[in-house]
C-alpha cells in the first residue's frame, strides 16, 4: 500500500489525487463545485483535473439547460485501471463475494461456484445466508465497478436440482 501511495505522490500532485479519490468513489452525477468543496481544491483546478479525466474517457459531461453535470464512466476500461492505481486491484466479483461471505459465516455454511465462461455467473449455495445480504454485497460491487455481477443465492437442494435438470453444467463450475 505504501508503495502505491508513494507512486501516486510522484506521478500526481496532491490536489489531483484528492479529486481522483473523490470521483472514483462518487456514484451518479456531480457538479464541479461539489467536488471542489469536498476536496478543498479550487474550482479552477478541479475543472482542469476533470477536463483531463474527460480526455482519458473516465468522466463524461452533460448539459442540462444551463447546468453542466458530470458523471464518472464506471463501465469504462480506464476506470478499472485508475481505480486500481489509486485504491489497489479490484478482485473479480466472485472473489469479492466470497470474501464478504467468509467474514460473516463459517466455511461450512456455504459454497460458492462460478461458471467457467465469459459470463462468470456466481452461485452462492447456502441455507443460512439471507437474500438481503447477497443483495448488499452485489450493490457494493456495483458501486465500485459499475457492473452488476450475475449472482444467485440458492439452497443446496435447489442447486442440486438445477444441475440434475441441466440448468447448470457441473463441468463448467469452479469452486471459489
Describe this structure in words.
The protein is of the alpha+beta class and 176 residues long. The chain has a four-stranded mixed β-sheet. It has a three-stranded antiparallel β-sheet with strand order 1-3-2. The protein folds into two domains: 2-87, Winged helix-like DNA-binding domain superfamily/Winged helix DNA-binding domain (Arc Repressor Mutant, subunit A, Orthogonal Bundle); 93-175, GMP Synthetase, Chain A, domain 3. It is built from eight helices and seven strands; from the N terminus they run H-H-E-H-H-E-E-H-H-E-E-H-E-H-E. The chain has helices at 2-11, 14-24, 32-39, 43-56, 77-87, 93-104, 131-145, 156-164; strands spanning 29-30, 59-64, 67-72, 111-115, 122-125, 151-154, 173-175. Helix 3 (32-39) packs across helix 4 (43-56) and helix 6 (93-104) crosses helix 7. The protein is elongated, with a radius of gyration of 20 Å. Strand 5 (122-125), helix 7 (131-145) and strand 6 form a beta-alpha-beta unit.
Mean pLDDT: 87
Q: Taking Cα atoms only, what radius of gyration do you get, to the nearest Å?
A: 20 Å
Helix amount: 40-55%
Oligomer: single chain
Based on secondary structure, the structural category is: alpha+beta
Number of helices: 8
How would you sum up the major sheet?
4 strands, mixed
How much beta, percentage-wise? 15-25%
> Which overall shape is indicated by the principal axes computed on the Cα atoms?
elongated
Q: Kindly give the count of domains.
A: 2
Provide the CATH superfamily of the largest domain.
Winged helix-like DNA-binding domain superfamily/Winged helix DNA-binding domain
- Low-confidence runs: none
Q: Which fold name is given in CATH as the topology of the largest domain?
A: Arc Repressor Mutant, subunit A
CATH class of the largest domain: Mainly Alpha
Architecture of the largest domain, CATH level 2? Orthogonal Bundle
Counted beta strands: 7
Q: What strand line-up does the widest sheet have?
A: 6-5-4-7
The helix/strand series, from N terminus to C terminus, equals: HHEHHEEHHEEHEHE
- Spatial separation of the terminal alpha carbons: 25 Å
